What we know:
Chain A is mainly β.
Amino acid sequence: QLQLQESGPGLVKPSETLSLTCTVSGDSISSTSYYWGWIRQPPGKGLEWIGHVYYSGNTYYNPSLKSRVTISVDTSKNQFSLKLSSVTAADTAVYYCARRLLGVVINWFDPWGQGTLVTVSS
Amino acid sequence: QSVLTQPPSVSGAPGQRVTISCTGSSSNIGAGYDVHWYQQLPGTAPKLLMYGNTNRPSGVPDRFSGSKSGTSASLAITGLQAEDEADYYCQSYDSSLSGSNVFGTGTKVTVL
């Protein structure tokens, strides 16, 4: 059964770079049928799509975050990663990784990792 | 800011029917893009509840149903149960935002 697990520091200082990794088990991240994505949820607020990556390295980012976001994939480790630079308190959120179907129409996220809380504070 | 608008909250007694709307525009739902729904139980990650407007993943009870018309979509829960108390989010694609997946603002369902 496919499982995704986020990992990374739970506390990041303002102006620094947030780095998270999602480890995929139960399926190959090199599958040609899926993207691998990141979504975040500030405390008490709704979901925000951050971006997603294909195994080849092709990426798609939320335009509002594009200048600060890098998503990459490591097929040898079956992992993909998120980097968000110049963070502020507004970037405090639970960060989820998820598998996304490949396509404009078939574009739902399933399954999701359990999420990891990242707090931006000095 | 989300481009898909949902009511902040809906409530109903056990056994009743509730509906959650998801209102978009001509660049997302109105452009023909499918709507998907997620259920987020307290303290847990979102879970896919409905995909392609009307399709339930395996294991989702048939008291959950979805529909779409024009620039809006709806999720209905019939025979409301205490375990349905959760946050619900719609999701679609928006052609005005390159490569963008967009989520709704979210709706809290309370079982009275």
